[in-house]
Every structure is written in structure tokens, then in C-alpha cells.
Amino acid sequence: MYYQNKVVWITGASSGIGEALAYALNKKGARLILSARREQELERVKKNCSGNPEDILVLPLDLTESDLFSEKTAEAKTHFGGVDILINNGGISQRAYALEADMASIRHLMEINFFGAIALTKAVVPAMIERGHGHVVVISSVMGKFGTRYRSAYAASKHALHGWFDCLRQEVQKDGIDVSIVCPGYVKTNVTKNALKADGTKLNEMGDAHKKAMSPDEFAEKLLPKLSAGKQEIYIGGKEIAAVYLKRFFPKLLNKILMRSKVT
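Given the sequence above, the corresponding C-alpha cells read:
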């Protein structure tokens, strides 16, 4: 019953994990705000949901346009009266060597993955505090706990999310606000196809590990019970999750393993 009639705002809702979360939450009776850049795809996701169409608001949003977030938040409040759960899911990956990636592509990735998430959170959370409850969720990655070749800016953006949202949790817990950081392993989405190469263009290739990964629907079904239980940090994936613990207890061993691993 945790999600029944809750207003849940999902960024990156037009595909992948965000789309799967929309369907899973819709089945649990949540009211949804669907955000991403592609309005037509958001409308498709809405049509695939059941129930009253008024319980789903399509709210196009570009995470690089943070100056519009106050306006978008006001639209959400006008439609639903408030937001109970914010899921910061929108993001982009990278496949480029650290010394070869141009600064424009690095800044673009950070703008989407880090600055976009914290700017939207800053726009939404004050109203949660006024109401005395709320839940902020950020979809990070196992790359928020360690790093591999080809993903320097991506890993940096996820590490930054952990630092900022860990601090936020300590500041707003007294106000009835929960903060959950979710670290997926490999999930079968287009994240690799959309990853930025060194010059900022898209890779347009599916990563080998993602081809065999769990589906976004399976990920969503595993995630929702953990969120409703109020878990602060959540790991969902396959054997790659073990790397989180190797990093903590045996960092040199993990480095040796990763140096010998195919990380595309």
C-alpha cells in the first residue's frame, strides 16, 4: 500500500528503467508525473498505463535546462497538489578514455547526471518539507562505488551523486524526508547505445554485458519493495554487485580483476 495514490515524479521516463518504473508504479496505484525530453515517447508510456488518464501527467523536461525547474515544479503542484516521491532517473553514460574525452562532453554529462538531478531535487524538496513527508530517490550505479576504463566522467558523476545525496539525507531526515540511493548493475537498456564517445557523439552500440542483463521490468519489480522499506542504499544486479564489496575490502584485488576484464 506504500505507493497507493502517491504522486511519483520520474525523470527519464520515456524508456529503460524509467519506463519500467512507470508501469510498475501504475500497477500499484500510484499517480505519475512522467518527464523526459521526448514528449511523444512519454505519451506512449502514458497510453500503456491503466486507470484514470488524469492520474498521469506528461511533463516534458530537459535536465540541462535547470532554470525551468521551478516552473515545471509549479505545473506538477497545480495538477496534483504536491509530489510524494521524486525519482531522479534521467541520465547518460560514457565510453571514452579519460584523457581523450573533450571537456564539452564531460561538462554535458555532468550537467545531466549531476547538476540536473540536484537542481530538480532542490526545486521539489522544500514543498515536501512543508508537508512533513517525502521520499527522494536517485538512480546511481555501481559506478558510483568504483570506476573502470572508458567511464571516467560517468563514474565521477555517480560518485558526486552519492556525496550530495548522502549529505542531503542527514539534513532533511528530521523533516520526514527519506533519501534512497539506488545502484543498479547491468540492466538491458539503451544506456550504452546512447553513451557519449570522446567527441560527445553517441556510441550507437549495445554493450556486451547489457545484452545478457536483467530486463528493466525485472529491475523495477526488485526495486519497489526495497524503496517502500525505506532502504537508504540499494544494490540490484548480477555478479557485478560483488565488485562493490571488493572495492571496500580488497581494492587492489578489484583493480587487478578490472584490468583483465572486458568493460565495454
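Residues 20 and 217 are 5 Å apart (CA to CA). Try to locate this feature in the C-alpha cell string yourself.
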